[in-house]
Every structure is written in C-alpha cells, then in structure tokens.
Amino acid sequence: MTYDRLVCANCASPVSEGRCPVCRANRERLQQENFFANLNPMALIALLTVLIAAVALLAHQTT
34: pLDDT confidence band, cut at 50, 70 and 90? Predict the structure, then answer.
C-alpha cells in the first residue's frame, strides 16, 4: 500500500502531506519500509520476466 492514499487518524489529513508529527513519522516509515513496494508494476513484471528467463536458461543448459 502506498502512503498517498492513507488518511491520518490524528489530524484527518492525507499522510502524504505530513501535517502533524504522526503523519511525518508514518510517511518516513512507509518510504523506507520496502524497496519493492516503491517499484511500479511494469518494473516488477520486467524483473519477474528476466528471472524466469534466467531460470529457464539455466535449466536448459544443465540438460
């Protein structure tokens, strides 16, 4: 989940705006949480395709 759609329970504003200390803390935590969460879907699909191709190539070379 991205933080741009979250609403802060403390100040009722979007977390991405960082209006209160709770928003700013959660925004920082979500930005640093996961590398793959920040990739767009097309980049994930491309990465998965390359991984599958590499596994298939290795499997073909060992036979």
Answer: low
